[in-house]
């Protein structure tokens, strides 16, 4: 494997590329360019070839005609979505819930990873880590049952309120609390699992940095602040940018299993709405159009945040 | 190096295959769906039948772990009809069945037949040429028992509900006759006695009194005021359900929310009728007096079951068979589970309280659950095969001998008939694993869709419990949505918005967040949000049905 | 780390410990409740309320599950797809990510853009199904492994990690005459075990929990994966599923209920817990190698 300098490929590259800097780089990286080939072959076959299906958003899908023979309907399904007043409600909810989840949920795994790293005792650390990611494996059907009980009138939270002479609250049906519950329970379910990438990054930090700092007399918080956190910045920024890609997925499974009629106005999101509509009347073109809309929004946000990160932190931490 | 080049070559050939193949895929889609272009099996069997070999029919298999292709049941069908059989394997997840069928049809593998698709999908399959026309005479000739059963339950011309505007039939409706009489109102009989009420409440006032005592007189005797009169859900199964919200109380005022019903030739939606206002007034009064579970609108089905089984509420509306012994019919969830906690627990069933005008009832379900069965377009040209399928459907559902063989196997080997008339599996066949190996059970969908419960009664009910079952089943009285099986594009468009609006307002009216005085304003909002059009559509359909 | 801690340091440690212990209990609960429900005598296993210990111990559901053949075939199929998936995805992701970690690689922005685009846009179910069908992959484990081979997310995460490896290490290897391939195999990969372990874990758990692709692409029940088998059991015992109910009704088959459901949930999670410590080793190993090299 090591003598990959395949002569034939090399010659081809050299004859094709013109003189100058670009050609020099082609030559320099010829082996690496070859390395890219298998990955992009997969990408083309399994990601790009099926992408023609997205045109269904502009067509009226006829099951016997296939995608190619379905008639064009232009923007019909986009108009349908944008003329539906409820679509704006669900879009707004999706954005708000997603944004809150990001705002509060994104830092938690980072904090957890840093604190966990501070724990002495490798064995204990391992236990905590393993247990912290357990909720990730429990489906929302099960989790929602547990949370509905916890927040019910006779649940522990209301018992606590009672003890403090406070009137009981039906949390799950209260528009003021429901989004907070969504955000909180979603953090609960995912913080341990989400911390894995940061723990990996922390593991990659050269211990010599810490040792040098200790010799210089840096305390624990100083080292956290000036060594661990800065070393995590590249991972944090790429995770942040990539999380924009799913900004319009506010958590179908969670919300579907937890919401009820009372909180519909604050909890109904694009995915739950499209699902309910689909139950009554499956419309492939409509859901494709909504999917395409979500993709475009995600693309804009990814590029936007990438730009912001670039402005703040320079080229180092961006996608490209 | 050599290794690397091989990888490259392999990669390139994969690309080529991908391109060629996807080109084929497109051209395939352009072809009109001739039987030959469809699935290989269909083509093969068609030619086989021509050459005098046995015709090959397909049986749906949604539970591959519980079936046996060459077991007793399948062989019984083969023998009875002189056909060869194979499985279409799928899954029991309704969403996935739907998705998979769509993919199969879209990719040209149209199955010979399918079942249990939603009405709107079935309409599309018929409109877009994926489903075959089913000639009425073919049906009458090859499935006479099915037709008789349909006529028994729907009156003459039972196919009128599924006839398309072009006058043709594209699907065989499935009746689930229990649906129209399944919901009953159950009271905890032991609680009634405990609080000094000797007879099952009959009027709305008596019901209110019972609920009041359930709340205040500590019916579970634990010394705490932790019981409520009644609870309900606002979502049931997969979606929001207006009918699940205290329907018996609405019935007392002659309205059936969540259903489009025929009131003397007028199509009405119960949720916006004046009677609903009276029902909501009563409910909000009850809510204020804490008779109703204060968080009923948060309940999911499991929470509801939980509250009933853990004796938190004394009245609930559910299917009648949940309240009686499982040996009397099926499940008996509230009976069995509750009795494990409270050994002397008992239920008194009612059809709902009588209102001031003596009206009563509960919103029930339309017995036409789904479109039932459709045939793939390729069978339009292979009527012999369609006829054979119809014969199979008829025989497996209504031929006592074949029915028993499929579900219970061979008398004396896998089952015996007790003196009390019940069917009992013999060991080792009392274990499901053994029955699967032998190849019998309810999982052979050929089609397993037409359940005549009169015909099946001996299998389901122990003879001595027959009166219990009859008594319980007689309580399910009410009206159901006549629009369920009909094509209703307007309703489909507005359903979600209207349902959400209604449920939200109902909860607000009951809990007092919105004064009942604004009910008429709600009705106006509802009509404006599409309700007007929905009612107009329903009226047109009703006139059409009544004309015939 | 050999240094002495101050008293406040120790107090902070104690606080951290206490906090983490509480967190452990809180996050353990849902899983624990499933264990409890799976061991409860059928009757009492009907509650959504709090339960710390089973009231009536019963191993019946486990006995049933162990005799349920599809569960074990499901396990086997899931293990096969997971192992295949993890190994192949790691190889191809690393192969793709390493070149992209070179900022001056020709066309780097184009490649990254192409990659990112696939993360955000997809063609939907129908064209994917047609592709799998036309490639002849239906009913084969490859239909579950190949389509997700290159995920932009994994590639970009790995690429960034590769970038964080000090340039100087690579430079010195180049001076020693090593080509990029040798550097990749003998320097980058060993230094990157933390990120490789992370991606392996993501991919592994993803494959372990995946069911929709298997449901759509695999019809042969002997090739069906664990999660599909589990879903089936859950749906079968979902009392609000009308079709399942009508079917059970017609031979008066009983619901097996919550106990069996919880049992299968537990059985599906346990392997993940068993495997985790082995993966975790690599989070530490990266540090060791880094220390030696540096």
From TrEMBL, chain A:
Cellular localization per UniProt: Cell membrane
SUPFAM superfamilies given in the database record: MetI-like (SSF161098)
UniProt keyword Protein biosynthesis, yes or no: no
Phylogenetic classification of the source organism: Bacteria, Bacillati, Bacillota, Bacilli, Bacillales
GO cellular component, one term: plasma membrane
Signal peptide positions (record): none
InterPro entries in the record: MetI-like, MetI-like_sf, UgpAE/MalFG_permease
GO biological process: transmembrane transport
Membrane spanning residue stretches: 31-49, 95-116, 137-161, 181-205, 226-248, 284-305
Stated name of the protein: ABC transporter permease subunit
Keyword list, A-Z: Cell membrane, Membrane, Transmembrane, Transmembrane helix, Transport
Pfam families: BPD_transp_1 (PF00528)
Primary location recorded for the protein, binned into one broad class: membrane
Annotated family: Belongs to the binding-protein-dependent transport system permease family.
UniProt-listed Gene3D superfamilies: MetI-like (1.10.3720.10)
Membrane topology annotation: Multi-pass membrane protein
Domain named ABC transmembrane type-1: residues: 91-305
Source species of the chain: Cohnella ginsengisoli
UniProtKB/TrEMBL annotation, chain B:
Signal peptide: 1-23
InterPro entries noted in UniProt: Bact_solute-bd_prot1 (IPR050490)
Highest taxon listed in the record's lineage: Bacteria
Membrane spanning residue stretches: none
Gene3D superfamilies linked: Periplasmic binding protein-like II
Keywords on record: Signal
PROSITE patterns tied to this protein: PROKAR_LIPOPROTEIN
PANTHER family, per database record: ARABINOSE-BINDING PROTEIN-RELATED, POLYGALACTURONAN_RHAMNOGALACTURONAN-BINDING PROTEIN YTCQ
Protein name: Extracellular solute-binding protein
Organism: Cohnella ginsengisoli
Source species taxonomy: Bacteria, Bacillati, Bacillota, Bacilli, Bacillales
UniProtKB/TrEMBL annotation, chain C:
Name this polypeptide is given: Carbohydrate ABC transporter permease
Family as reported in the entry's similarity comment: Belongs to the binding-protein-dependent transport system permease family.
Tagged with keyword Cytoplasm: no
Membrane topology, record value: Multi-pass membrane protein
Record-annotated ABC transmembrane type-1 domain positions: 75-276
Pfam families (alphabetical): BPD_transp_1 (PF00528)
Top-level taxon in the UniProt lineage: Bacteria
Gene Ontology CC annotation, any one: plasma membrane
Tagged with keyword Cytoplasm: no
InterPro entries associated with the record: MetI-like, MetI-like_sf
Organism: Cohnella ginsengisoli
Primary localisation category: membrane
Keywords: Cell membrane, Membrane, Transmembrane, Transmembrane helix, Transport
Biological processes, Gene Ontology terms: transmembrane transport
Transmembrane segments: 12-32, 79-100, 112-132, 144-162, 183-205, 260-279
Location of the protein in the cell: Cell membrane
């Amino acid at each position: 494997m090591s003598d990959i300098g395949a002569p034939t490929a090399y010659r081809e590259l050299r004859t094709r590329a013109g003189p100058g800097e670009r050609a020099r780089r082609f030559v320099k990286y010829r082996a690496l360019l070859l390395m890219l080939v298998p990955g992009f072959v997969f990408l083309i076959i399994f990601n790009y070839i099926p992408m023609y299906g997205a045109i269904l958003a502009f067509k009226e899908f006829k099951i016997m005609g296939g995608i190619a023979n379905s008639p064009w309907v232009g923007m019909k399904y986009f108009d349908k979505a944008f003329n539906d007043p409820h679509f704006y409600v669900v879009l707004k909810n999706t954005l708000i819930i997603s944004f809150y989840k990001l705002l509060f949920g994104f830092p938690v795994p980072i904090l957890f990873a840093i604190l966990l790293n501070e724990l002495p005792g490798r064995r204990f650390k391992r236990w905590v880590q393993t247990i912290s990611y357990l909720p990730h494996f429990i489906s929302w059907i099960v989790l929602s049952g547990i949370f509905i009980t916890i927040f019910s009138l006779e649940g522990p939270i209301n018992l606590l309120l009672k003890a403090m002479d406070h009137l009981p609250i039906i949390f799950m049906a209260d528009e003021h609390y429901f989004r907070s519950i969504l955000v909180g329970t979603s953090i609960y379910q995912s913080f341990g699992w989400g911390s894995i990438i940061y723990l990996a990054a922390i593991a990659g930090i050269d211990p010599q940095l810490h040792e040098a700092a200790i010799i210089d007399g840096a305390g624990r918080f100083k080292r956290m602040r000036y060594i661990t956190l800065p070393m995590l910045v590249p991972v944090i920024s790429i995770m942040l940018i990539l999380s924009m890609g799913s900004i319009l997925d506010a958590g179908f499974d969670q919300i579907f299993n937890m919401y009820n009629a009372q909180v519909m106005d604050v909890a109904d999101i694009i995915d739950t709405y499209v699902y309910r509509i689909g139950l009554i009347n499956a419309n492939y073109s409509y859901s494709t159009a909504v999917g395409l809309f979500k993709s475009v929004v995600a693309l804009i946000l990814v590029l936007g945040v990438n730009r912001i990160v670039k402005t703040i932190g320079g080229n180092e931490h961006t996608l490209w | 190096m050599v290794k690397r080049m091989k990888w490259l070559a392999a990669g390139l050939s994969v690309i080529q295959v991908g391109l060629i193949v996807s080109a084929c895929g497109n051209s395939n889609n352009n072809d009109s769906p001739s039987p030959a272009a469809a699935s290989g099996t269909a083509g093969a069997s068609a030619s086989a039948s021509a050459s005098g070999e046995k015709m090959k029919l397909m049986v749906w298999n949604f539970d591959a772990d519980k079936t046996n292709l060459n077991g007793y049941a399948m062989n019984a069908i083969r023998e009875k009809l002189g056909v060869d059989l194979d499985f279409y394997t799928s899954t029991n997840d309704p969403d996935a069945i739907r998705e998979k069928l769509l993919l199969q049809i879209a990719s040209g593998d149209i199955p010979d037949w399918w079942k249990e698709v939603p009405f709107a999908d079935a309409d599309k399959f018929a409109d877009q040429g994926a489903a075959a026309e089913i000639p009425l005479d073919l049906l009458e000739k090859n499935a006479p028992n099915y037709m008789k059963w349909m006529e028994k339950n729907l009156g003459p011309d039972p196919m009128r509900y599924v006839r398309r505007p072009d006058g043709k039939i594209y699907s065989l409706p499935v009746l689930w006759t229990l649906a129209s009489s399944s919901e009953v109102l159950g009271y905890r009989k032991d609680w009634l006695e405990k609080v000094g009420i000797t007879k099952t409440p009959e009027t709305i006032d008596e019901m209110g009194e019972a609920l009041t005592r359930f709340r205040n007189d500590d019916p579970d005797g634990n010394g705490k005021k932790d019981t409520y009169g009644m609870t309900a859900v606002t979502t049931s199964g997969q979606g929001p359900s207006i009918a699940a919200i205290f329907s018996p109380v609405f019935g007392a005022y002659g309205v059936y929310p969540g259903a489009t019903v025929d009131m003397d030739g007028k199509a009405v939606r119960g949720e916006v009728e004046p009677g609903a206002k009276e029902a909501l007034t009563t409910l909000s009064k009850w809510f204020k007096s804490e008779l109703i579970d204060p968080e009923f609108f948060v309940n999911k089905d499991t929470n509801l079951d939980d509250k009933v089984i853990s004796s938190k509420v004394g009245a609930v509306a559910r299917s009648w068979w949940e309240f009686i012994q499982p040996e009397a019919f099926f499940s008996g969830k509230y009976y069995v589970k509750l009795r494990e906690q409270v050994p002397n627990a008992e239920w008194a069933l009612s059809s709902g309280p009588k209102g001031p005008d003596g009206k009563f009832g509960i919103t029930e379900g339309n017995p036409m659950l789904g479109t039932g069965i459709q045939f793939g377009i390729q069978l339009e040209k292979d009527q012999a095969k369609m006829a054979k399928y119809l014969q199979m459907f008829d025989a497996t559902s209504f031929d006592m001998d074949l029915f028993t063989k499929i579900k219970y196997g061979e008398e004396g080997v896998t089952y015996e008939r007790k003196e009390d008339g019940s069917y009992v599996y013999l060991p080792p066949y009392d274990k499901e694993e053994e029955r699967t190996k032998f190849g019998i059970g309810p999982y052979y969908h050929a089609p397993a869709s037409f359940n005549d419960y009169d015909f099946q009664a001996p299998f389901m009910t122990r003879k001595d419990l027959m009166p219990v079952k009859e008594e319980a089943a007689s309580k399910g009285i009410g009206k159901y949505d006549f629009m369920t099986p009909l094509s209703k594009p307007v309703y489909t468009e507005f359903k979600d918005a209207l349902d959400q609006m209604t449920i939200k307002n109902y909860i607000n009216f009951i809990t007092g967040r919105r004064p009942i005085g604004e009910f008429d304003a709600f009705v106006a909002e509802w009509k404006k949000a599409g309700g007007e059009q929905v009612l107009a559509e329903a009226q047109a359909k009703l006139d059409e049905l009544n004309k015939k | 780390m050999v240094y002495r801690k101050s008293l406040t340091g120790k107090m902070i440690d104690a606080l951290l410990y206490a906090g983490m212990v509480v967190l452990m209990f809180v996050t353990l609960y849902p899983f624990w409740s499933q264990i409890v429900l799976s061991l409860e005598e059928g009757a009492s296993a009907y509650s959504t309320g709090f339960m710390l210990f089973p009231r009536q111990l019963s191993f019946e559901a486990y006995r049933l599950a162990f005799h349920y053949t599809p569960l074990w075939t499901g396990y086997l199929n899931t293990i096969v797809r997971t192992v295949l998936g993890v190994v192949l995805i790691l190889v191809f992701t690393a192969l793709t990510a390493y070149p992209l970690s070179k900022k001056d690689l020709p066309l780097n922005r184009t490649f990254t853009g192409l990659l990112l685009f696939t993360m955000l846009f997809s063609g939907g179910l129908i064209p994917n199904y047609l592709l799998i069908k036309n490639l002849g992959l239906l009913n084969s484990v490859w239909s579950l492994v190949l389509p997700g081979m290159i995920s932009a997310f994994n590639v970009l995460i790995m690429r960034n990690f590769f970038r964080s490896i000090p340039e100087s290490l690579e430079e010195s290897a180049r001076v020693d005459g090593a080509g990029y391939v040798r550097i990749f195999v003998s320097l980058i990969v060993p230094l990157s075990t933390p990120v490789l372990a992370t991606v392996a874990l993501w991919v592994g758990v993803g494959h372990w929990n995946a069911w929709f692709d298997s449901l759509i692409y695999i019809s042969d029940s002997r090739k069906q994966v664990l999660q599909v088998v589990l879903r089936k059991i859950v749906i079968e015992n979902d009392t609000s599923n009308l079709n399942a109910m009508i079917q059970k009704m017609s031979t008066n088959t009983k619901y097996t209920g919550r106990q069996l459901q919880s049992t299968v949930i537990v059985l599906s999670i346990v392997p993940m817990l068993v495997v985790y410590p082995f993966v975790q080793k690599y989070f530490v190993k990266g540090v060791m190698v880094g220390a030696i090299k540096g």
